[in-house]
């Protein structure tokens, strides 16, 4: 069963010693993404295994509207704010097939 949700996952390697600054800039500019009408939410995670590695996950109503945002000036400006902190990165996209709530998330 396809939920219709389009998920984007970015793996970012942040320059040594810049993690705290990166996290603050990401948090302070996150509304650029979450304010998009087609955005369902966004998460920043720090790797527990690799120093300086972060994962950014965002969910979208569909690929078409994510791609429209990706081509926008707002996206270029957002990327520009994060760029000084990263040494490399990669993007993976996917479609959510199932979304099952765990026991701790259920009422």
Describe this structure in words.
The chain is α+β, with helices and mostly antiparallel strands and 107 residues long. It has one domain (6-96): Alpha-Beta Plaits. Helices cover 31% and strands 33% of the residues. The chain is built from four helices and four strands; from the N terminus they run βααββααβ. It has helices at 19-29, 31-34, 63-70, 73-82, and strands at residues 6-14, 39-46, 53-60, 86-95. Strand 2 and strand 3 form a beta hairpin. The longest helix is centred in the N-terminal third of the chain and has 11 residues, at 19-29. This is Antibiotic biosynthesis monooxygenase family protein. It is an enzyme of class 1 (oxidoreductase). Its EC number is 1.14.-.-. Residues 6-94 form the ABM domain. Keywords: Monooxygenase, Oxidoreductase.
Number of domains: 1
Secondary structure class reads: alpha+beta
Structure summary, number of beta strands: 4
Query: What is the CA–CA distance across the termini?
Result: 23 Å
CATH architecture: 2-Layer Sandwich
Biggest sheet architecture:
4 strands, antiparallel
Low-confidence stretches: none
Summarize the structure in short.
By secondary structure, the protein is of the alpha+beta class. Helices cover about 30% and strands about 35% of the residues. It contains 4 helices and 4 strands, in the order βααββααβ.
List the helices and strands and how they pair.
Layout: E1 6-14, H1 19-29, H2 31-34, E2 39-46, E3 53-60, H3 63-70, H4 73-82, E4 86-95
Antiparallel strand pairs: 1-3, 1-4, 2-3
């Amino acid at each position: 069963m396809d939920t219709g949700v389009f998920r984007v996952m970015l793996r970012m390697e942040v320059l040594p010693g810049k993690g705290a600054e990166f996290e603050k800039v990401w948090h302070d500019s996150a509304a650029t993404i979450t304010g998009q009408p087609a955005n369902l939410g966004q998460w920043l995670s720090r790797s527990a295994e690799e120093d300086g590695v972060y994962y950014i996950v965002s969910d979208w109503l569909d690929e078409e509207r994510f791609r429209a945002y990706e081509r926008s000036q707002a996206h270029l400006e957002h990327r520009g704010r994060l760029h000084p902190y990263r040494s490399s990165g990669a993007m993976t996209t996917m479609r959510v097939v199932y979304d099952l709530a765990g026991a701790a998330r259920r009422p």
